[in-house]
Write the structure tokens for this entry.
Amino acid sequence: MDTKFKSNSTLGNKNRFWNGFKKFSLDLPVVYMLIVVCVVMGFLNRNFFSMANIISMLTSYSYYIIGAIGLVFVFLSGNSGIDLSIGYVTGFSAVVSTKTMSLLSDANPDMNPWLIIVLGLLVSCTIGALFGLLNGIAVAKFHIAPFIITLASQLLAMGLCYVFTNGYTVSGGPRELSRLSTLTGIHIGKTIIPMAAIIPIVIFILMAVVLSKTTFGRQVILTGSNPKSAEHAGISVSRIYIIVYLLSGVFAGIAAMFIPMCIGGVNPDVGANLLMPMVAAVTIGGISQSGGYGNMVQAGFGILFIMCLMSAMTFLGFGLPTQQLAYGIVIVFTMTLLGYIERKRFRV
Amino acid sequence: MSTVILETKNLTKAFANKKVVSGVDFVVREGEITALLGENGAGKSTFKNMLVGLLEPTEGSITFDGREMKEIKMGKLPIAAVHQELSLFLNLTVAENICIEDFPGKKSMVNWKKCREEALKYMGIMNIQLDPDAIVGTLGPGEQQLIEIAKAIRLNPRVLILDEPTASLTAPERERLFEVMRTLKKQRIGMIFITHFLDEVFAVCDKVVVLRNSEKVCDAPVTEVTKHEIEEHMVGHSLEGSSFSLGEPDPEVALRVTGLESESFADINFEVHKGEILGVAGLIGAGRTELMESIFGLRKCGGTIEFMGETFKRWNTQQLIKKGMVMIPEDRKNCGIFPRRDLKENITAAQIDHFVNRRVKFFGFRREKENAQKVIDRFRVACPGIEAYITELSGGNQQKIIVGRWLSHSPKVCMFDDPTRGVDVGSRAEIGEYIVELAKTGTAVILVSSDLNELVSMAHRIIVMRRGRMVSELMREDFDVRRILSIASSQQEDESSVGGNHGENA
């Protein structure tokens, strides 16, 4: 009797473990890929895991993290949601806000630099919000496919960016801004964790709470799951669509502040290379564009993976073209894998 | 007597031990039009789907010209069906639509000229004249129906099934369709005509077959039965009296609807009292669902509603839910459930703001789990746990989840749009019990149902709709399934008949 009971319970445990493992693997296949990258780098170059490199990773990819967070909500809202405009919107916002800040600090040198930075943030968020609103209204009220309208507004942002700068790099502004990515931050012993590395993490946690613990987050997910049921349940689907794109625009605006902060001068075509890593991070995390399924943990691992991949490539001395080829391979591979997983899990 | 083309013997289909069609013997002869009648859920669709090979029978046989159906290749069956939902490509021309199944031409090249000729030829057979180059979307529903038939005829069938082809047609369009049916009859094509309108049966059919509760209850030449007899067969004699004990409605009006109109209905006026169950009867396509969705603010419409002492000229769903109106939709799969989400979220979807912590607004979901568990316990939902995906549940249990979502709301007005459609018998009785209990607590209930017996046993009052209009209102004393059926399916459309029906029931 005793042994029988025991064997039964171990079997139950085994099953529970197996089920948990299955759910984990289906939700987060990206973790395995992350492990592969880490193991490979562990053999090739131990410095990859040094505190200095981790901080520099977080700092130099901070704008990708922030852009990707906004994108998560767009993906989750379903309706094949995607925001292709965020790359160039970030670029354009960065250009305008940098210009504003440099004009302000040139005109009155006695002005509080933090006030100038806040004004710059305000400007770039406003621009992002306007683009987001444009996308959102087009999707919600005129039922234009998100892919098409955001592709179009991307062109708009790109054009504006070149017209505004005439093709020249914009720079200037208070020195305090670029210090945020180097010296200003939390001191632990001799290492400094700069604000540019901390802010994205704080925003990430904040938005994770918004997604999982607030009415709005739940409504976004339910809308993504089935917009018609959502409408029946008294959720204003068009409002959700508008807010989601608005949010994505605002986050592009916030991300824009990190470009003068971390790079310095803002090149007019800085927007060109921003979009793809953001989309890749969210997608590889396992959040599907069909909406209604996904959480911030997945997005977080997706972002982490892309960051490690980019950093690893740079570490190993690959140039930009090779890097892009690598992203291409990785994204195509994961998309196929995820499509297969989704089919298996939901029997669609 | 002409030769038999199609014959079924002891045809039976069961889904999970529930017989949907049981032991039906059925014969179609050359040039004979058979009417296939029955209430919703009697098994007509399943029967039809077996004949065209979409479903495999559980028992029994289907033979065409003496050959077993299994021996014939799928594409070669001498049978074609025009389904209730048209399957035309609205952006293509008439000729393209007619030839769509098998374009004339060599290999992968289409011979458009020949395609046009083909279309003309088959329209000639049916004796209709339509421009083969017209875009189908620009034509009326009647013409589209004819194109659908031409498309079916081109496959050269010996048996043609017409599934409720007249549901959306006007009187002249219907006449034209009957003309075509008579023409085809002369060409020795056997037809099965599924309809709800009994007058049509007498206009074109030769034989009547009635299904009720999956069994064949009548099979007779049209000349030997009366309309009254057919109705009796459809409804059955086994009308159990009310198995529910209804409460007394309150004189206070909970919802008043005045002059509601839209493209699918017109001139709707009614009121529901607190604690009253108002039944809405009507055939599919009578505008019942559209009416409910309009009242609930999901569709645009004109008119006013008066709810909880407030008059609305324009309203939206959020306002009404907040004030205490809820609706359980007809189409559970598309408008009810949230796939890929767990039961907990499905249950609390309509009232998430009730759980958010009051101190910090919109934040945290307190007592959400307990609440969801309560609903599951109360409605005895069979499920592995509240974290299970809703799609893992059976239809009846999914429906209980949706009903639970709304009833845990303590609504003032509750609209049920066919709550027992596609629900097994056990859950059906349970849901009925909840509706009656709900009304006893003072909630005004509007119950739309295709199952007339259900309506008669549960409603205090019944409104009958026909083609977007309210044609009759019956009090509980006057309930009679047969009469409701004949009012709902009667053919007269002119205004005077509407008044006439009212007079008749006064």
Q: What stands out?
A: Residues 380 and 400 of chain B are 8 Å apart (CA to CA). Chain B is about 35% helix and 25% strand.
